[in-house]
Amino acid sequence: MSDRHRLSLGPIATPDRLLLGPGPSNAHPTVLEALSRTPIGHLDPLYVALMGEVQELLRYVWQTDNRLTLPMSGTGSAVMEATLANMAARRHRAGGGEGLFRPASAGHGRPLPRRRAHDREALG
Questions:
Q1: Phi and psi torsions of 22, nearest 5°
Q2: Choosing a second label site near 122 at 20 to 30 A (CA), which of 27, 49, 73, 79?
Q3: ∠ CA(60), CA(65), CA(69), 5° rounding?
């Protein structure tokens, strides 16, 4: 094995910056402290209890009693797509398959089905 491309690197020293854009954003020191702790597994009783607390806080934010209020891990686009999917009832179709969420919702390179003109009339 050649050491030709091997580097000897020290710890990364990032400067303190105030981030004012839409993201990433600065984390509160308590968040940074929590992130420095030893991770726990998704089946750990403490993790299950923490997710229960997160569920209850989400119910407060959304002002709902729905027992299926769940934390979701994913990109912002994934959450927006899930929100739209949950808001669209079976009898209310959400658009014609073009636009902002098409790449994220197309799924593994398969194109979304096209709606015919008469389908759009049902949308009102």
A1: -70, -15
A2: 79
A3: 75
Q: pLDDT truncated to tens, each residue of the chain (124 aa)?
A: 899 999 999 999 989 889 888 778 898 999 999 999 999 998 999 999 999 999 999 999 989 999 888 887 777 788 788 778 877 754 455 454 444 455 554 454 555 555 555 555 544 4
> How many degrees, rounded to 5, is the angle at CA 29 between CA 28 and CA 32?
95
Look-up of token digits 């739209």: 84
Q: pTM higher than 0.70, yes or no?
A: no
> CA-CA distance, 92 to 89, in Å (whole number)?
5
Domains in the chain: boundaries = 28-71, 74-124
Instruction: Give alpha helix (H) positions in 1-124.
Output: 29-35, 45-62, 76-87, 102-106, 117-121
